[in-house]
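__Protein archive entry__

___
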Amino acid sequence: MASHASPPPPGIYVPVPTFFSKPSSSNLVPPLDLATQTKHALHLAANGIRGLVLLGSTGEAVSLTNSERKTLISHIRQQFDATNHKSYPLIAGTATQGIEDTLTQLQISKEVGAQWGLVLAPGFFATVLTQQGIVEWYTAIADRSPLPILIYHYPAVSNGINISASTFTTLSQHPNICGAKLSHGDLTLHTLLASSPEETMSRERFATFTGLGQQLLPVLTVGGAGVIDGLAAIFPSTLVRLYDLVKEGNVEQARRLQEIVARGEGLVVGHGVRGAKEGVKRILGWESECRLPLKAGMSESEWREWEGVVRELDDFEKGGGGFAGDDVLGYGEKGV
């Protein structure tokens, strides 16, 4: 029997936005901005982020050609290799409906340095899919994938698709399926998966990540591996500190920080890719276009709704993991 693939290490991951330059007057498709992509990726790694998800939903994966996918993943891997991050975890997303298209993208990702694939559930026929059909679709991909894969369950972009706990349990037994990202508010499913008996679903072989930073504290409490979180693209150290507080057993301190993070997550949840890119621009100074039909940019009135919590998060981020004049998060006089 084949050995079971290892999942990504636990921790905080970022589904990075794909950076685009301004389009030319003759071509409405903005080109990749690899220089800014590199700066952002290295910034995240330097601030404790455990790994990156390239070309997920926040990365506008459906708007890139396979050639562009190859270019982007290859470039980021080369940049990490050149800066002494040779084994830095890279997870490559797929968002196709077909088995062969998905396998093609996984093969490309493997060739240029990704270590795992994050495979979005096929939602086009969601209203008539059976759980057995989902099992067989993922199994057909996992049987032939050159990369270990994680199941990406994001009903909001997958036509409301449902994947049951028993389906996850069945798929977790496949030696090439090593985890899941759950981007929805169903904490019951998180609990059923992350707290399963080891003989049913081993956490060493199948890691459950939430896709929502506002769930990080409860998900870690029930045995989840971490989060793949869009707000961490803007405030990486803050999410890393929240993770560390939970792991250290500082629950009261974690609860305080989780409340602020939960309020801030509305920027990304409510505005999606636009919100993530606007935050990166205003806080980190790196601007990016979106590809149509998305339009980058938020109005001042839209942004004003988030200024208060963004200021709180920015103060925490720049304060080295504490609040000004406050030792509550365990940094003493460093608190800043």
